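Hey, can you fold this?
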Amino acid sequence: MNNMRIEFLVKSMGKIKADKAIGEIVIYSDDQDIWRYPANSGGWGLGPLPCGEYKITYIEAKTTEAFMLFGLGWFADLIPQFVTDRTSLGLHPDGGVGTDGVKGYEGTLGCVGIPFGGLSDNITCRNLIRDGLEHGAIPFTCRNMIAISS
């Protein structure tokens, strides 16, 4: 999987306790769109992932409910390529657990969460990222696609 890159395309905004970005994750290989899935960021904590350029340098297994769906949990780090005070950002399954520990919430503390509808989509996404990392860090872009009306 040479020349992989991933984008989070923000298509709308919402709010739970904090602003929430709603859009989709798109994975490209050699500039071909090979996989896409709805995703969200924020709703809790400091709100959504700041738009900009990041790098994914590792992916690790997770057993915390907030990072798991259908029995599979993982976390891919997002290292900002710009100055920000935000830390511990990543890409992971959105386990639907609020800051109060109660299930039933979609959203994150600032990471990009993917609310997979089934185990096979969760496995596919994790494996694509894991395979892409065999060739080095993966560029990740958070891009605001919301049209600005005048």
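Oh, and this one too while you're at it.
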Amino acid sequence: MKKTIFITILFYATCVCAVSWREIAKENDMMAGQEKIDAGADVNQKLEQGMTPLLWTTFYGSADVVRCLLEHGACKNDMNNVRYQDGYWIRKGWEAIDIAMTDEPMQGYGYASILKKDFARRAIIQMLLAHDKELAQRTLEVLNFRDSLDKATYSFLKFCTGVSFATFPTTCNTYRLAVECIANDIPGDFVECGVARGAQIAVMGYACQQYQCEKKIHLFDSFQGIPLAGPNDASQPGIRGPIKHNVNVPLEQLLVSSGVDVFSVSYVKNNMKRWGVEPHRLVYHEGWFQNTLPTDADKIEQICVLRLDGDLYESTKVCLEYLYPKIVPGGYLIIDDYALPGCAKAIHEYREKHGITCPIIKIPQGRGPAYWRVS
């Protein structure tokens, strides 16, 4: 009897060990993976072509088995000398996930190239789900939206990215939120404060024309460049090194051009014409925000998308004070310079003062910009 039980156990253990990690990964069979580990399998074993169990399960996007392997000591860093060609992309995928989790810029890591690989894209999304469901959902939304773009729209958004200071995901986000507001009949106009060459304005205009929407698009800008930084800013945007001017002066003395990002109103208007944005929907508000908003904000009844790109604490603060109350429920606030300390400080102070708890969503691969949906 004992001999029979021993043989049965030995046979079962042999069968479990015989099931390859690749087969377990294909089926995302966590139970089989756990049984294999319980039977003494080495979770960091080098398998065919240098692949480890973690690499195979990542390759197939098997989030449950990956979680199980990590809990039992699987090493993410043990991915060198992989001879399997796709192992390179999986290794880069894990690097991208680690970077994403720390909100560090992803340049130099081939993240965009990874996401073009179907299997790697699937795996990365699954792995993100295992670590951070919110980040995974945002990434998936961006990728799915990008894939849904027709060729003409994709080309236009790529063009606008090329003439702006934004990343492609940031430009896509502007377009996506504009289209969402139009499709859902969210009332109000589009507004951008700090338009530079006008690329994001062009994106909003393209969305309006594409969906035959008659929303107005308001352009607030000094058209003289970024003003001087103040005491609540850590640096002068566009100029390397510490702030060289005296920041402890009256605000009026800081409302002069720093010489950075100077694009005249005639230059922007010419861009709109060349890029095919219909002029009748564009409303220009020329001057420093502190001078134009007290009078011109009253000319705007409702806002569905407010895009802030003023770089500095004071610029962000004054735009929030005059324009945020006009954003309708279901509309959006986009903060292009959320990564800059001065801008972020103004945002958080305003949120705290007015009890705003809407989640701040960082744009995946945006390198700083964020947004939230107004409730």
